[in-house]
Amino acid sequence: xxxxxxxxxxxxxxxxxxxxxxxxxxxxxxxxxxxxxxxxxxxxxxxxxxxxxxxxxxxxxxxxxxxxxxxxxxxxxxxxxxxxxxxxxxxxxxxxxxxxxxxxxxxxxxxxxxxxxxxxxxxxxxxxxxxxxxxxxxxxxxxxxxxxxxxxxxxxxxxxxxxxxxxxxxxxxxxxxxxxxxxxxxxxxxxxxxxxxxxxxxxxxxxxxxxxxxxxxxxxxxxxxxxxxxxxxxxxxxxxxxxxxxxxxxxxxxxxxxxxxxxxxxxxxxxxxxxxxxxxxxxxxxxxxxxxxxxxxxxxxxxxxxxxxxxxxxxxxxx
Length: 319
Prior knowledge:
The strands form 2 sheets. Strands 8-7-6-9-10-12-11 form a 7-stranded mixed beta sheet, with helices on both faces. α2 (about 60-70) runs parallel beside α6 (about 120-130) and α9 (about 210-235) crosses α11. It has 12 helices and 12 strands. The two termini are about 35 Å apart. The chain has about 325 residues and is α/β, with parallel strands linked by helices.
């Protein structure tokens, strides 16, 4: 992290100012190791690997840290040679590059402030830092260590359904938006429509009890062997969609990726489906209720992306 970002941070317990403890290791403006102390009596926040750690460990989200650090470049556009993440971001949020220029953005993943409970923050920093316009912190989504009303836009994709209380996690984002600020979220879609990937809910009662490292090793062995068979099955006319539901395998045979990339994506996303402690999909109606109860305006909830996409804006303060 950089010194100029310290003034943006507060203790997670009470919006108190933080100071850098003496003796920090700093190289070319990047604070690699050190500690932040609160002006009140909150616990000291260690800085390790250039990232402030507001939580002692990954907790229920440990699997995300494991998978993203192992495959930290797999789904990053600049490394896989595609624009898939870029297209998903702009099509899902409806934001344009022009309006992001100079904006202050909270990625709960332009000046970007990225928060994650897991050690996936290390993959984020390794891929994107150190940069003057990037601040990465490891913290709880419900105890974000930034000042309220300080962000032009808040972006939260692929996260809410994996928290113990998705609605509460959504509501925790609202205080960080400026007047007239934009919020974009997505969640998995609830329901049992014919969908190949819904079969994960048949397996999760077992896979969430398997030690994560064993599940990960199994998928590293199983996905490369099963992927060609799964591709054949899912390409079958009429019955392929049904038969493809029987055995979970996240298969991206239709994307412009190399064979190795498809295998890595398959391992990464199958693990992402079977390992998380929490997986609470939502209906468009429930997501709409979140936005409405938060008092947002210009609400737009629709099917898309990984399930349900939601956008809204805080009401401007009277002039």
